[in-house]
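Table S2 (text version). Query chain:
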Amino acid sequence: MNESAERRASKLQTILEVAKAMVGLRDLDRLLATVTTAAASVVEAERCTLFLVDRERGELWSKIAQGETREIRVPVGLGLAGHVAATGEAVRLEDAYADARFNRAVDLSTGFRTRSLLCVPMVNTREQVVGVLQALNRTEGVFTAEDEELLVALGGQAAMAIENAVLHEEIQALFEGFVRASVVAIESRDPTTAGHSDRVAVLTVDLARAAEKAPPAGPEYAGLRFSADDLKQLRYAALLHDFGKVGVREHVLVKADKLYPHERERLEARFELIRARAEVEALRARLEGRDPAGHEAELAELDALWDVVERANRPSLLDGEVSERLRELAARTFVDARGRVQPYLTPAEVASLSITRGTLTAAERQEIERHVTQTYRFLSQIAWTRELRRVPEIAWAHHEKLDGRGYPRGLSGAQVPIESRMMAIADIFDALTAADRPYKKAVPRDRALDILSAEAHAGKLDAGLLDVFVGARVWQATDQP
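Corresponding C-alpha cell output:
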C-alpha cells in the first residue's frame, strides 16, 4: 500500500472511530467539540468551525470555532457558510479572498489570515442541513476533492449524532419542565411551603456530593459514588418528594391551628352566648337589688376559660396546666335559650384541642402521611428513562426511619435506600428551619441540628450521613443571604 492510500485509510479509520464515539455522546457541547477536532485532523486544517442552523431565526451560529471566543452568527444564504447552508452544496476554495462571498471581518478582528477554505453541509437522515463544517488553511497545499469527500462523510455522521443529541436535550428539557410544573402544582396547594422542594433538592444533592468525597465509615458506604445521572435522579426525587400532597385535601394540608377557622368561630359564638346570658343575669341582679358579684365573677372566669381555649388551639406543645384546665372546661355545661343543657365543648372540640403536638388529629395525620404513597403511585405512572427509573422508589422512602418506625411501609436499616436517608435529613432540617410556616416558628439552625442529632442517636436517622451533613456544612447551602 502506497503512502497516499495509507493516509486515506488512516483518515477513514479516524472517521470510523469518531462515528463510534459519537454514538455514545449525548452532551451536545462535547459532541460538537469532538466533531470539530476530528474534522480539523482528517482534512489537515489549521482551524475548523462548526455552525449549527437556527431555523427559527434563519441563522447559522458558531457553536464551536477554533481560535475564536466570540459567537459568530450568519444569516442563512449570506457568506460562504450561509450559502452552503442554503444550497446544501460544498464549497472548496484555493484562495478564500478571491471569492466575494468570503467575509473578511472575522480575519480582521482576530488577526488570522485565511488562505484555503473547505465548507461542507451537515445533512441529516431527512435530507435537512442541520449545520456546516468549515475548515481553514490546509497545512500542506490546498484542500482536495478527497478532503471534501472525507469531510462530507464526517459531516453526515455528525449530523445524525447531533440530531440524536438535540433530541436527548429536548427530552431532558421536557422532563425538567414536567418536574418544575409539578413543583409549582405542589406548592400552589400550600403557598406557605414555597421553596421547600427546591431547598430539599439542593441539600440532598450537596449531601450526596459531600458523602462521595468523605463517605461515612462502614461497608455499606464503601465505594460510594454518584454519576451525573445518579445526581439528576436524586435531584428529581427530592424535587418531587411531596408530589402526593396534590391528593391531600387542602384544608388539612394548610391547617394552621387545632380548630379550623369555622370551628373556632362556632365555639367563639357559643362562648359569646354564655357570656351574654351571664351579663343578663348580672344586670337582673342589680335591677332587683341583689349582689351581682357572683355573675361578674362568672364573666371573669369565662374570659379565663376562653384564654385556655386560645392557648390550647395553638400548634405548640400542650402543657400540663392547659391540659388540666381543658379537662375542667370539657366537664362544664350551660343552659341554652331553649332550656337544654349543653356542654361548653363538644367531644370533637375536646379531641382537637387536646392534640399534644402540632395541629392534626390522628385521622388528619394519616391523611397527610398517605401523601408518600400517593407520591409513589403518581411517579410510578411516568415512563422514566433507565437513568431515572429509581425516582419513585427514592421519593417513596423519604419518611422511613432506620428503626422501622417511619412510614408508609415501616422499612428499617438497609431496606431504606441511602438516597432516601439523605433526603430525610434534608427534609427534616428544612422543615425545622423554614420561616414561612404559619403553624410553627422557625427553629434556629443549631437547635435544628441538635434535633437531628437526637433522632440519629435514637436510631431513626443515619448518623454517618448526618455527620457528613454537619461536618461538610451542607446545611449552609440554603442559608439566606
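Notes on Table S2: Strands lie at 45-54, 59-65, 73-75, 91-93, 117-123, 129-138, 333-335, 341-343. The longest helix spans residues 145-189.
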